[in-house]
Amino acid sequence: MNRRRFRLVAAIVAAGSLLLAGCGGGGNSASGAGANVETDAQGFALNTGPAQKGGTVNILGAVDLSHLDPEMGNDGNVLNFYRLIYRQLTTYSNEPGKGTTVVPDLATDTGQPNADKTVWTFTLKDNIFYQDGTPIKAQDFKFSIERSFDPAVAIGQNYHRPYLDPSGQYQGVYKDPAGLKSIEVPDDKTIVFHLSKPLAGFPDIAATAVFTPFPADKVTGPTSIDQNPIASGPYMIDGYTRGSQLTLSRNPNWKPETDDVRPAYPDNYKFIFGLDPSTIDQRMISDQGEDKNAIASSTNPLLAASLSRIQQPQFKSRTVRNVPNCTTYMAMNTTKQPLGDLRVRQAINYAVDLKSNQAATGGEQMATITHDMLTPEVPGRVPFNLYPSAGDQGDVAKAKELLTEAGYPNGFEATIDVRSIPVWKAQAEAMQQSLERVGIKLTLNVIDASTYYEVIATPAKQHEMAITGWCSPWLSGIPLLQPLFDGRQITATGNQNISQINDPEINKRLDEISVITDLDQQNAEYAELNKQIMEKAPVVPLDWATNLQMAGSNVANAFAHPGRTGYIDYTSVGLKDPTK
């Protein structure tokens, strides 16, 4: 069974599992919301209607983009932004309901594998160019991918590393210009990847941001792209004042006939940063002036306090519910005591009041409680709960029993890293209250939202705990489990194994499962490994966010896209009437 062809089943919503109708039919027409607006059974937008060419779409956000270099950014908002200005070998479909389907981007197809899926060959399309008219060549992919191994930029997505450099010794093209033998470029149109082990899902890796090409002769050093991006997508940067505003205009050398994914409806995009989250909510609800042409950024879903204000059809019909392809969790740093003790980590899993965390996130309409690390639509996933409690409110007695066994009858003190976003701080405060019941006293370390992931991905800067999230449109244990729990992938920067667990049994199972070529069998084995990982308790799964993201009344083609961590895809939207 081909995993990449699984159809998206949309968001789990309040008071049970309500499967949303596909945007192409089966939904309701929103009363008073305008023609062709599709809504779910609760009145939230499935699709805000057809778009026209032209005009400017505004993106309102509290947080600036982490990095303009696609080798360096790794949060959902910046990955969403990248698709406006960058292209890769493959990408994810923008067709509603098919957002987990890999499709060709700069390549002519999704790759041609050999029999055992260890060699993948891609052929580039004709008439593909950078913003200055320079042709995009296969050599540019090799250079860019090798550049991603440089320690100065190696903080972005890293799925490719164990397949292209299993030794972990390669330090990037600037330190080793000879490059990787695993990447071969026989001519300008062809690039061949020789993987260290079979991987049927390599087209998903080829869709990650690190597979953005750049011409070597126009990149002056490891960090130059972060200052001077070179666009290959439909838009290019027109102006940027960090912390304030970024504007995009059309890339004159992007050829729409080579791009079946990005409709490029607007003439311009304007990203506005530094806004207070409550101000964003107020502006989106009020829907005045240019805000009719705006959406809230992926970093700024509706605040829980604003939920009661949008219950009327005219508001709900322009509010998109996030699809649940992200798991919010608390990582426990196993290298710091007493979290190196399994009994302590299990005690914390028992102690956490998941219901309180859900309330802090916004309640049942904005979060679904989970007890494991695979998202709901992963093939083969089997739900389980190893740390049960009445009403998911925590088992204080069991937690105290385990802490006493571990030698901490009165608890201990620890620090928890948290992103400076209201909902995340509310979750951390709920965690404080949960753990205080068993004597664990948490101090919050609030980190700037734009640099948060970079900080917690640097082990030297980590504290005992951290609230974070992990998402993937690639519905497999490879992206959802391996980066988070493979102890051999712990790195000095760009580390995704936030719990820093390095367990030989887990490492061995990851190796054994990764080479299984029968996808049904592989999915079943990952489902079992999911349970084995939770027995080791390196994390506390909290919820699948079903956040709400508002669009202005003139914004069209806004829908929840699983390839964009469940939020509205920036490349899909346009305006209903560009003259307004």
UniProtKB/TrEMBL annotation:
Any signal peptide, and if so, which residues? Answer: 1-21
Keyword terms, alphabetized: Signal
Q: Which InterPro entries match?
A: Peptide/Ni-bd (IPR030678), SBP_5 (IPR039424), SBP_5_dom (IPR000914)
Q: Which domain of life is it from?
A: Bacteria
Domain Solute-binding protein family spans what residues?
Answer: 101-489
- Any matching Pfam family: SBP_bac_5
PANTHER family given in the database record: ABC TRANSPORTER SUBSTRATE-BINDING PROTEIN, PERIPLASMIC BINDING COMPONENT OF ABC TRANSPORTER
Name used for this protein in its record: ABC transporter substrate-binding protein
